Amino acid sequence: MSRTASVIFFLPGAQEATSLSTLIERLVRTTNGNPLGKWGLEHRILRSTASNLADDKTHPPRLHHILHLLNWPQLTHIVISGGPPSPNGNADPTQALETIIAIPYAQQASYIQLLKLKMGALWTPRTVLQVANGSAYEAGEITIRLGDLRQLVGPGAHHGVVCFLQMQFEVPGEGEDGLGGGAMEVSVSPEAVAMAEQSAKDALTEFWQNSGVGGTARETWRFSGPGEAENGLGEAGLWCDVLRLRK
Amino acid sequence: MTSNNAPPLNSLHELLLFGTVSATRQPALLRILAGYAGLQPHAILELHAYFKPTRSPTVVQQRGGSQGITGLKPGQQAQAGPKDLYFWQLVRNVEEDELTDAGSDAASSGTKPHKWQLQFRDTPEPGKRSAAIRFAVNQDVVHGDPEAYMQAMEYRYQSRHLLEGHRLVYNNVVISLYRAFVPREDSATALSPLPPRSQLQLLDPSGTYIVEANIRLSDRSNPTIINTGLKELDRLRTQLRDIIDLKVPDRLKLDTRVK
């Protein structure tokens, strides 16, 4: 049973098309990447409004992301990060709360209209970001998606270049027990999972360093458990972590 | 991938007429409607779970120009208010065997994934028309936990009921005949297994069926489309006038705003 390691490298403020084309050229040349076609994303973010409850002032605002990834063409992912305060006020402030669902992409426009027209008391629209002419490649076991990140309206339209890397990996011993084709799953220790995740992280980091991209990139990592990558929820959560930018 | 490639907006408004029919006359009405439609009615069994916002809306009252402005910091704009908050529903289809004793026990022991739909229904718009018109949105939850989503949206579960009946389509009109059942004892969460039928009771003890005639509008801003829909509902009302009185509902009885 495969797990997934994903990382997004964000090169903020990179000069537009020159950096992206350079990045693509280097990646393809050094990794012998096979093109998978066009890629892109559209991301909208809303912020929770202030509550009139006195104790709500201790909690940071929540963010409501609406994300469409072109590699999940039939889906739009909704990510709400921050979570509500717990009724007894004992929520761990260090724990990032995140709820993710997916709706059909065909229903995205009506969802946005619903938030805009009827949920204004709870959510305020902020920014709309887009990768319009991105590209996807495959280099061995690693999938690469990259593009220019732009804000659709307002000043500072070009934010930088984003590069997404993903690979699948396995934890030794995880999965079916292999004894006569039984269906019993074998669980593995957290230490074994951590070691496998570190190996995957090392592999992706080495790939990035060998790509010759250079520059200072912010990296955000996420690891998905067995089968969790099938519906894009983990990948959507990772993108929303990056695309919240300056919150 | 640009906004030009965004999917078209689904129809977000609907025209409505409502009526009631007694349990004894419901089979006859169903046969007549099936005759008009040329189709057998489709049985419906749906769970509707209601959610209410956990907090009050932020209200900023504008008490005149100068008082409103002096209270603002430089660069800050006065907010429009007040803003309403609304009830939401999570809806899913129910299999008949979930309502048996065995089905209920089986559901308690395991988690069967169900396909849920978020449904938002606004209060019908004011104004004199031959049918009510309201903003209505359905969102299918394809992946993820819909109840966790509602909690993250700061909504808490209120109650649930079962709608049982039939639905059929006659030209552009979706006609539903249904009754509501409520559990004798309410559950703590929307996703709790349903009790068996013996633990459900009719919301209206008389057993009367609600009849709902509904047309979705492709464009609320197009008067021609609205008038076409209104005329079609008028024709349906005339055709059925000897059997059922389809009326414009009292909009405040369909008010979904939180007070």
Explained architecture:
Chain A has a 9-stranded antiparallel sheet, with helices on both faces. Chain A has a single domain, classed as Hypothetical Protein Pfu-838710-001 (Beta Barrel), CATH 2.40.320. Chain A has helices at residues 16-31, 108-118, 190-210, 233-243; strands spanning 3-12, 34-48, 63-69, 75-81, 98-104, 123-139, 142-151, 158-169, 175-176, 185-186, 218-224. Chain A contains 4 helices and 11 strands, in the order E-H-E-E-E-E-H-E-E-E-E-E-H-E-H. Chain A is an alpha+beta fold and 247 residues long. In chain A, a hairpin with a 2-residue loop joins strand 6 and strand 7 (142-151). With 259 residues, chain B is of the alpha+beta class. Chain B has one domain: Hypothetical Protein Pfu-838710-001, CATH 2.40.320.10. Chain B contains 5 helices and 9 strands, in the order βαβαβαββαββββα. Chain B has an 8-stranded antiparallel barrel with strand order 1-5-4-3-2-6-7-9. Chain A binds chain B through residues 38, 40-42, 48-53, 56, 62, 68, 70, 75, 78, 80, 83-84, 97, 99-111, 113-114, 117-118, 120-122, 130-132, 152, 231-233, and chain B through 1-3, 6-10, 12, 53-59, 83-86, 120, 122, 135, 137-146, 148-149, 151-154.
